[in-house]
Specification:
3-stranded antiparallel sheet, single chain, Jelly Rolls, globular, mainly beta
Length: 197
């Protein structure tokens, strides 16, 4: 791992960091329980389990004072009427933020906190979204024929809490209706269990 300041290239056309340290890929089966159309989900998994998204990372120590960065690439497609999306996560250290900068495509960053507030910000090339501390976030690709590519940066010690979203889901779903997208309530959403003092 580099000990001195360094630069790296981002290939926007090919959606890659050529000198990346790691590439993580998530197939549809990794998002079990996150789509409403369970029959359509199962069929797509059985028919090849498509690649939904990938993350190219420049590795740094996962410690305070460092910044972790990379590319998130969400491929186009839908399960039923819901767009391809990332699993979504809170940061393990809730008081940490993240910033995303859209390089290519069209999408949404869906965000919510454990107090019940939620919002969604649109991604388009040249637009940045700041995720304030304590908000879970999920990228959604609204295009049916183009990758959604974002560059992200977050504190090295933030960590990832996927389990809360896997068990509770997000309050809102992003669906395709009448040629555009719509945010609807998630009937399967359940409030996180409260921890008593």
């Amino acid at each position: 791992m580099k000990e001195r300041p360094f630069g790296f290239e981002i290939d926007i056309a090919d959606a890659a960091i050529p000198a990346r340290d790691r590439c993580m890929q998530r197939r549809l089966s990794a998002l079990r329980g996150q789509y409403q159309d369970t029959a359509g989900f199962d069929h797509m998994v059985e028919q090849g389990d498509p690649l939904i998204y990938e993350v190219h990372e420049v590795l740094r120590p996962e410690s305070s004072g460092e910044l972790l960065s990379g590319l998130s690439i969400v491929h186009p497609g839908r399960v039923g009427d819901e767009y391809f999306m990332t699993k979504g996560h809170y940061h393990s250290v809730r008081g940490t933020a993240e910033i995303y900068y859209c390089l290519k495509g069209h999408g949404l960053l869906l965000m919510e906190n454990e107090d019940g507030d939620w919002t969604a910000e649109e991604f388009r090339p040249g637009r940045a979204v700041y995720v304030t501390p304590n908000y879970a976030h999920r990228s959604v690709n609204l295009s049916l024929n183009e990758d959604l590519v974002t560059f992200f940066v977050y504190p090295g010690h933030a960590g990832h809490d996927y389990a809360t979203i896997e068990s509770n889901g997000f309050r809102k779903r992003v669906v395709h209706r009448d040629g555009t997208f719509e945010l609807i309530d998630n009937p399967a959403w359940s409030a996180p269990a409260q921890v008593s003092a």
